[in-house]
């Protein structure tokens, strides 16, 4: 069972990414609560180096193995941990700062 904080965190992070122009790999209504997978807009996002340079570890590469086309490129943000769920607004604010660095890189 998911908690309201898990749902809130996932929703806010997805909105933040969408507001920056990122598109979700998951179709509307099929998003995971604590895992956000987005299409990458640059190779440095897909391989994780842009996030690493900004001080955040993500899952890079994200092969879906469902017949995705050549050149498919995505990254995954995992929103697990009591620290994140216990401070949703702080987590979102910190991720927003990181995302600004990633977008400007």
Task: Identify the CATH homologous superfamily.
Answer: Aspartate Aminotransferase, domain 1
Spatial sequence of strands, sheet with the most strands: 1-3-2
Shape: globular
- Which second-level CATH architecture applies? Alpha-Beta Complex
Look at the structure and give the mean pLDDT: 90
The topology string of helices and strands comes to HEHHEEHH
Distance between the termini: 38 Å
Per the CATH scheme, the topology name is: Aspartate Aminotransferase, domain 1
By oligomeric state, this entry counts as single chain
Question: What do these coordinates show?
Answer:
InterPro entries: PyrdxlP-dep_Trfase, PyrdxlP-dep_Trfase_small. The chain is α+β, with helices and mostly antiparallel strands. 45% of the residues lie in helices and 11% in strands. The protein has a three-stranded antiparallel β-sheet, with helices on one face. Helix 1 (4-19) packs parallel to helix 5. The protein is globular, with a radius of gyration of 13 Å. The relative contact order is 0.20. The model has no long low-confidence stretch (mean pLDDT 90).
